Amino acid sequence: MPGLHDRFETLKRNLAQMGSAAVAFSGGADSTLLLCAAQDALGDRVLSVTASSKAFPSGELDDARQFCLARGVRHEVVALDLLSVPQFAENHPDRCYHCKKAIFAEICRVAAERGFLHVAEGSITDDDADYRPGKRAIAELGVESPLRNAGFTKRDVRELLCAMGVTAAAKPASACLASRFPYGERISADALERVENAERFIRALIPPHSQLRVRSHGTLARIEVSPHAMDAAMSQRVKIAAEMKRLGFAYAALDLSGYRTGSLNETL
What we know:
GMP Synthetase, Chain A, domain 3
């Protein structure tokens, strides 16, 4: 396999061949690398589009705006009421399909209106290991996944961003807040706000850049953190338990298996 920097050059050549592209930009590491490559390849023929919703952690939009401003990339924000999509709020196992379909249909609409020929998103090869019904929506809408097609892994992405001096290299992986709820547990605006506030509180008590998820199981908050953050979480257990109760959870539990991607898919 070609070296990482050779593959990055190939990625940029592939993007250049698109002529112009709108990049779905969350502000996370994967979409950041894709946007950097697209800007290098396409210059002002790239548009960054960020979806805004109560389903996404609020700080991500600010990060996305600041990055695009610093890089001089044209940036647009599309506001979506995902809770108005019944299949999203009902939280069936194919929730991610309906979520991605709504998001990317809007991004495709914006791209077409602005005259951009392609829409690209930041999936990587690691995503293939988990249950990802959203991939079907991406395929149906003709959205392209240049990083996955070029064989990029999460490790590749972080290594390149680090070499480029981009701070997103250290950002922990993020995900839609709806991923905190077991399938069948209805999602509401209040429930989304509760898990976001819970994670914000705990994140301030554990080492920076640790992975963290607060999975909402009715009245139970099941807390997943990176293995290296376990001791810190346990040392703050009294504060964490009190805050979880204040937020409306009756119980708080630290998952001894630690953080792992898509843990709620383990029961499928």
